[in-house]
Amino acid sequence: MDTIWMAQGNCADAPPSTFFPSDGVGVEVARRICGTCPVKDQCLEHALESRIDHGVWGGCSERERRRILKRRRDLALSATR
Ligand code: SF4
Questions:
Q1: Cα atoms in the Cβ-side hemisphere of radius 13 Å centred on 26
Q2: Ligand 1, from 44, 57, 61, 64: best to mutate by most atoms within 8 Å of Cβ?
Q3: Which of helix, strand or coil describes residue 43?
Q4: Exposure string over 14-53, b if 16+ CB within 10 A, otherwise e
Q5: Could you give the number of structural domains in the chain?
Q6: How far apart are the CA of 42 and the centre of ligand 1, in A?
Q7: Range of the domain at 44
Q8: Mind listing the pLDDT tens digit for each residue in 63-78?
Q9: In angstroms, what is the span from residue 71 Cα to ligand 1's centroid?
Q10: What is the mean pLDDT of each run of 10 residues along the chain (81 residues)?
């Protein structure tokens, strides 16, 4: 798995706890940092492919990632019909 991109993320020098918030305010703080991250797309795909349940990855919360995965499953299903 290629994870070289991780060192290029805006979070490289931030405390990891920033990206594992316990409330909505914390999620917004993390999302703001992710918003300008140059490896945001790789980060989000990594979290989706690895089925990472916790934390903010690629600017998306757990709930948002679940929605993206559901949408992709639904699309894949409809493509087979
Ligand atoms: S998108 Fe966010 S969590 Fe991912 S590498 Fe960038 S700053 Fe870090």
A1: 12
A2: 57
A3: helix
A4: eeeeebebeeeebbebbbebbeebebbebbbebbbeeeee
A5: 1
A6: 9
A7: 4-80
A8: 999 999 999 999 999 9
A9: 22
A10: 90 96 97 98 97 97 98 95 81
